[in-house]
Amino acid sequence: MAFLVGSAADAQEAYPPGTYQLTPRIDLGLQPVRVHIPPQFDHLPQDLTLNLPPGFSASVYAAFESFDRPRFMAFDDDGVLHVANMNADEILALPDRDGDGVADEAIVVATNFERPQSLQFFQGDLYVGDSPRILRYRDEDDDGIYEKREVFVSNIPTGGWHSTRTLVIDEPGGKMYLSVGWPCDMCRTEGLERGTILQFNLDGSGRRVFASGVRNVIGMAIHPATGELWGTNNGHQHEGIASPPEWVDVIRDGGFYGTPLAYGYQSWTDFTNPSYRELLPITAADSARVATMERPAVLLPGHTAPMGIHFYDHEQFPTRYRHAAFVALHAGHAYLAPVEGYSVVALFAEPDGSQARVADFITGFQAGVDIEDVWGRPHGLITDADGSLYVTSDDDNLMILRIDHGPVVADWQRHNMPDSLTVGTPLDIDALVHVERSPADGSPLEVTADLSQIGGPSDVALSPTGDADFRLQYRMVVPPSLRPALKRVRVRVHPSNATEEQDIHMAWQIAVLPDRQIAVLPDRQ
Length: 525
Fold this sequence. Notes:
By secondary structure, the chain is mostly beta strands. The protein has 2 domains: 8-405, 6 Propeller (Neuraminidase); 409-513, Sandwich (Immunoglobulin-like), CATH 2.60.40. Helices cover 1% and strands 41% of the residues. It is built from 1 helix and 37 strands. The protein has one helix at residues 284-290; strands at residues 31-34, 49-52, 56-62, 70-75, 81-85, 90-94, 107-111, 118-122, 125-130, 133-138, 148-153, 167-170, 175-180, 196-201, 208-212, 217-222, 229-233, 246-250, 262-263, 267-268, 298-300, 306-311, 325-332, 341-348, 357-362, 376-383, 389-396, 399-405, 409-415, 420-422, 426-437, 445-450, 460-461, 463-464, 469-477, 485-495, 504-513. A 5-stranded mixed beta sheet has the order 30-37-36-32-33, with no helix packed on it. The chain has a 4-stranded antiparallel beta sheet with strand order 3-28-27-26, with no helix packed on it. A 4-stranded antiparallel beta sheet has the order 4-5-6-7, with no helix packed on it. A hairpin with a 6-residue loop joins strand 16 (217-222) and strand 17 (229-233). The longest helix has 7 residues, at 284-290. It starts with 30 loop residues before the first strand and ends in a 12-residue tail after the last strand.
């Protein structure tokens, strides 16, 4: 399961058919970090900053001039990262031979595509989700270049909107899946395979519609605990800034997901909208299909355009991320969405999708409020054998980011710090910081608190209470002269033999309020 953060009260309650509710949000305490840009990629802006949870860092793994809409990624059997360079109709290999966390070069290893978006390696061969087909490439002389090309599955329907194809191979389940988007925004179509997830056997046989009524499922992944297929869907465009919500859900065999009739949990499309009036009349068969729609596991704000989804199944990140799903949001407020977007979110849920909560994991791709202020658009997600997370940006600045966690994992175990306090009142702090992972070299930790923003000292040492816990106990009076504002209590966990870049910084925000006895005079008339 994914380890949940927050209380059970944060989880989403059941809601009735014909409605929808966005998935509850939780806060991971994001903090700004400078993006490390290697000198070979000096064409990128040098002042890029992202917001990440404590202990995480961001660097550019690859940003070659040959990048042209880099989308999904895959590692081959030798651990070499490959990316679908969609608009160049090619697959690139990005080896890191010296292990410095930066790609040495971009090598064209396969060509002759029509908008390749996704790729998978299986039994040494390269499989690519191309717009009208699934292609299989073989490297017959073991030089890393895939010379032999064959059409593995043909006659995938094309035309109209949504021409990209996402391919997932489920080797333990003996199946492969391909997403085929709807041919328009929202219309009736005679194409039986449009708006579907197709399923095949691993030899390409057994073609059938696995799920239907999906408008445009971009991301797909197999849950590591259950073996179930999950997907991310992009909703229709002309029903306001809030509707429809974007869904992330289990893709069930025989499931119907609403397009073009409904969204959310059996919420009907607004057929009074001129864009969707041509969908009428609604038939009894339409109503019966909508009645089969299940409550989605996760609903995100409308028009945030969820792309890649990746379940974390490694140990580098803190335990809470085990089997959590990362989802790339490709759009946001600068486009149509009611929220900022342009981010990567983390989804925490039980293996069956229940008790879901969502949290911002990476933000900061939009530096201002306009579309021109967006400097990156997350799309593809993958982790390497060491548990580092890779994120493609396929527009604005074309790159692959690498997200790592430092050697120390620490977080609040408990604390009694208030959300607000009044100047001149006493404050008795009792907080416990738990260290989940210490430096491998056994170097001691220095754990200190900075209370200066609320009128206390800036370097209060926390006392070790065991092998993994540090306690902050401090009694003070908030100075009456302290200016009311939002303040932060900060805790720093520093490995004594490491650089400051490997520090863990935690913070708790407190609203400092004016003395209640201060009279507030009315404005003069």
